[in-house]
TrEMBL record, chains A, B, C, D, E, F:
Keywords: Signal. It comes from the Bacteria. Coiled coil: none annotated. PANTHER family: PROTEIN DCG1. Belongs to the HyuE racemase family. This is Aspartate/glutamate racemase family protein. It holds the Pfam family Asp_Glu_race. Residues 1-21 form the signal peptide.
Amino acid sequence: MKLLVINPNTTASMTATIAAAAGAAAAPGTEVIAATSAMGPVSIEGFYDEAFAVPGMLAALRKGEADAADAAVIACFDDTGLDAARSLARIPVLGICEAGLSLASFLTPRIAIVTTMERSRVPLEHLVARYGKSHTTTVRAADISVLSLEDPRSGARERLRHEIRLAIEHDRAEAILLGCAGMADLAKSFETEFGLPVIDGVGAAVKQAEALVALGLQTSKHRTYAAPVPKTYHGVLAGFAPVEAA
Amino acid sequence: MKLLVINPNTTASMTATIAAAAGAAAAPGTEVIAATSAMGPVSIEGFYDEAFAVPGMLAALRKGEADAADAAVIACFDDTGLDAARSLARIPVLGICEAGLSLASFLTPRIAIVTTMERSRVPLEHLVARYGKSHTTTVRAADISVLSLEDPRSGARERLRHEIRLAIEHDRAEAILLGCAGMADLAKSFETEFGLPVIDGVGAAVKQAEALVALGLQTSKHRTYAAPVPKTYHGVLAGFAPVEAA
Amino acid sequence: MKLLVINPNTTASMTATIAAAAGAAAAPGTEVIAATSAMGPVSIEGFYDEAFAVPGMLAALRKGEADAADAAVIACFDDTGLDAARSLARIPVLGICEAGLSLASFLTPRIAIVTTMERSRVPLEHLVARYGKSHTTTVRAADISVLSLEDPRSGARERLRHEIRLAIEHDRAEAILLGCAGMADLAKSFETEFGLPVIDGVGAAVKQAEALVALGLQTSKHRTYAAPVPKTYHGVLAGFAPVEAA
Amino acid sequence: MKLLVINPNTTASMTATIAAAAGAAAAPGTEVIAATSAMGPVSIEGFYDEAFAVPGMLAALRKGEADAADAAVIACFDDTGLDAARSLARIPVLGICEAGLSLASFLTPRIAIVTTMERSRVPLEHLVARYGKSHTTTVRAADISVLSLEDPRSGARERLRHEIRLAIEHDRAEAILLGCAGMADLAKSFETEFGLPVIDGVGAAVKQAEALVALGLQTSKHRTYAAPVPKTYHGVLAGFAPVEAA
Amino acid sequence: MKLLVINPNTTASMTATIAAAAGAAAAPGTEVIAATSAMGPVSIEGFYDEAFAVPGMLAALRKGEADAADAAVIACFDDTGLDAARSLARIPVLGICEAGLSLASFLTPRIAIVTTMERSRVPLEHLVARYGKSHTTTVRAADISVLSLEDPRSGARERLRHEIRLAIEHDRAEAILLGCAGMADLAKSFETEFGLPVIDGVGAAVKQAEALVALGLQTSKHRTYAAPVPKTYHGVLAGFAPVEAA
Amino acid sequence: MKLLVINPNTTASMTATIAAAAGAAAAPGTEVIAATSAMGPVSIEGFYDEAFAVPGMLAALRKGEADAADAAVIACFDDTGLDAARSLARIPVLGICEAGLSLASFLTPRIAIVTTMERSRVPLEHLVARYGKSHTTTVRAADISVLSLEDPRSGARERLRHEIRLAIEHDRAEAILLGCAGMADLAKSFETEFGLPVIDGVGAAVKQAEALVALGLQTSKHRTYAAPVPKTYHGVLAGFAPVEAA
């Protein structure tokens, strides 16, 4: 199977981190195709960046489906544009927050998400509520920028460690879900250090995508995620107009 | 005060309907400035269209705030891009679903939203849940397109009436909230016909915007809606990159 | 329009504070008529006082509606007798907790109510739950009496400040809703001091009342808030018996 | 033990029905003292009547506690003034809705309340939500007046039967909770007729009151239900002012 | 009436504690029959022990019902096997967590459960959620073993005291519910020490059982708790197979 | 990897159906080991059967883990004994209801579970609530016995079809989750017939188990699912006593 993994920000070095995590998680028969969004922000930090990351992500998804991808992963922990993606595509589309929460829920009823910026806490709490996990999951932020994760001298990792410790002691967390695609390479070392499961959403989403493809399951096109109605789009986004399916 | 009312789709005739409703609701001292989005879909029907309506709406908001608008209304019942708008602007931004639900809640504990397309029910139910009104509010769809509301021969109004009747009889609704900005001109005739309050979100949002401005209240920029972090944006959306506030 | 603002306790000096706040918030065309309840407690602190404040408030409402008020505000943060008031009157009736929460929700998803007495926390948490805002709102008490707010030497303001600080730091509050009508004059100075929105429910309710009147909206008399059934009342409350509407 | 059972409306014939049900449920050592409220409405139908029934109920409670009652029951299914009563008294106070729901929950996870008037559905749904039973309990109304229950020719019983049937078939109810104190005498015949538990709240509350007294448990006076603060009350309700406990 | 009180663990000394608490709570006409489970764990600490305690508990229940018990109490705070017991028996069956929460809810809207082992917090939080009391109830653990409660030198009581103090100060608890059947003898001394209600679930369940029997109420056998379908059971549990009711 | 799939009832023919479904879903490198419980009921229909199915399931799990299974699936839609299993084992353990709901949630926000017996609806609704999916999922029962699924002349399939149709039309379901392990072979034909995703929990759980093993994730043994405390067990279940891990 061909699995499209989309980095919805435009930073190629982060795509590399994501692709490595996806490749490490993928089954032997899975070809991972990592795509970097061609337009939008270099990182997604809060609601504003998220809004501008969606068109580029959807463009990458449309191209990937045309190129015969069997499933897609949106590799940003905000699950950026996930509903729009499911409306656009017939193939299954996974968000890494939703996928990570699902896997974590099989391991414990007490989960903590540790993310980057304080402003991302409420957006993630909205996702957690929508996925029905408010009663099992808390969200903490290390107050670091997304791109600082790529700089070992930034102190970002130490701040993450500090929040993980607080999550275990004060929030009664029994497993940690890493709240940013850029943290994918940290899961195993943190797992060893803290002695409890540390889940990376990218790997989780890769396995869920493989699961759906193996079982022959696709997004329901009945009602909520029905294909977009063909219509005119204006301006620089005209090229994204939905058209009658062939 | 200057009140910006943004139609986030690109159909100018719908902007006219919205502007009329806004003007009718506005206080004597309020100057309503109606803006049609310059890019994106001609109507917003489901998650996909919504994603592509956000950049044009935010462009209109940015321009309006620069032109000294005191508050803004996003005149689409999906509250399209509302969180991004609140992050971008310092002035208050209102969505017509949130504003309509708030006003309706002062009149009764049993509300029914009647919207256009079946595919919009789940997105609206998500909004209702997020605004904390799932216990008082049901959502129905008349299975009509948004633009059919502009055509008196389309039968759209009769289908709306049918759903309103069902809402009153089967859902125990005691007030109706019209679930599309394009229905703004129908509120009063339906109110007379059905003998209970029928609320149009556009008017509701206009009054809420006036209220916030009169009270000197602005969006909290503490944490969740902090101004976007200055950074590079790529591609056709590069012009939307957030910059350091002067 | 004529707007009736009812202080449901019998302390005229508090009515003056409330009337000033209401007048400052009111639009030019709004005539504010402030009424002090003629019977019941001098302040409302907890469930018991609240029960005895309702008949006096309803008497003031009945008189005000007969005197052609277009809308009414109950200026006690417990939203004392709000449901009974909506059953009695045809004109819209606003509670200051409900109105304040609605306005605050347009500004941020993280609200803290700061009220007076510890015993009022649970009653306010019940209101917050009923209005669907438990997921966005926390309640704190400064452990001060209602009437101490009128005495600048009581230390009450400093205790309020202390709780506001805790709300911002520990509860992640991004806006403050003042939890007593007697705090109406403190909003602006606290807003300056803490650098985030501080909302007074009296002003919020005045604007919501104006909004409903401007839009021609009235309480739904369908089912829940139907006019009281004419019947006999006995004892000192006999004068309150509902009668057949003329 | 002495058990005060208060009918918070002023209709003595309904007190007789309630007293009979209470007496039938009471243990041999329990002396039931039935009190009819001396002031307020002849029946409680909706929020307005409820507000005016509270002072009379509290007067009866105060007198009963002074006369050495060990516990009290408020025999109206709206649990009229229950929080105020718990603040006033040291002895335990039971509402018949809360008590009935508690007992019913021991028998099945699917309960239907069948009450009198349509306008009482939302108030009862609020109680059900506050008691945490929304996930197990539905509310139906037979559209009959409270006092019609006393008239065998009114057809009220047949309408109750009709709603019970619908509750079993459509709401999957497995037990019925009678939603009015005036229905107390119908429980056993309905139980026989429908073949599932039919619970009367008056009997339930009597047993809960006996349980609390037997176990030596009293209302917590810590914070929420602390004794009312001594203060001045004005007007016809001046006599209800809380005073310093001796 | 005959009341069966089942200790679902196999420790007879704990049965003695439970029997004493039940006897102290029982009405004069109630004969308490205490049964110790004949098979399974010596104490129930977490999900695993709970699973193996159920067959022995059900065997004791079956025997008790055959011996003409009128009601039964399962005296373990996990409400071990409660749903299975209600399916098996026609007589009412009470769990001590559910019964204790019900009684506590009549006394205050702020309850704290204090239990033994940390691993029991999540199971009890699940019960609290299912009983609809998450909004009023918090759960704390003293990190002690169940059987240490029987050893006065173990320090267990001091650790319970410590958690009760934290519950009152930090969780705003206004009443304490003891979270283990083995704590039944501590309620009264803690009540005196802390000055607020301390509830033992065993006593609570005894009174609820008496209440149901006095009112002639039995478990609803309609749907959810219908008698088990007669069928073959294999292996060492073959003797537990449900058979056609005579 | 070795994947243990446990049929917690004792009917070997149902194990064969389950094993076929598991084998069809398994990846090439996965060895499926299907185990039939050696003790307990021939089918699990309601709470009573469930209680007696747990010891046999746990015995099979203990043996499987000793025989080097990498993960386990409990193939009964009640997720029978899942918490106990996670406490016992270090390897991941999946329930088919939880796994099926997780996968279905990636495909649509409107799911219907269609199960066998009416008495199983409430138990499944409890699971759905605990997994946080009450807002997306409804439960229907076809009123058929579990073993009738194995008899093509029983009419069971037609009744399932009938409920699926009602779920789509009345509950707005957009995907169907089959609510019994014995239905595993029906998914694909129903999917073709109804034109929307039909999910079998057995296949879903197999893929989730493979995902966890591939990612090196195991049950968190921190607090809730800590290994059972070594202690004495009595009677026929003595052999199940937890012992000190080597």
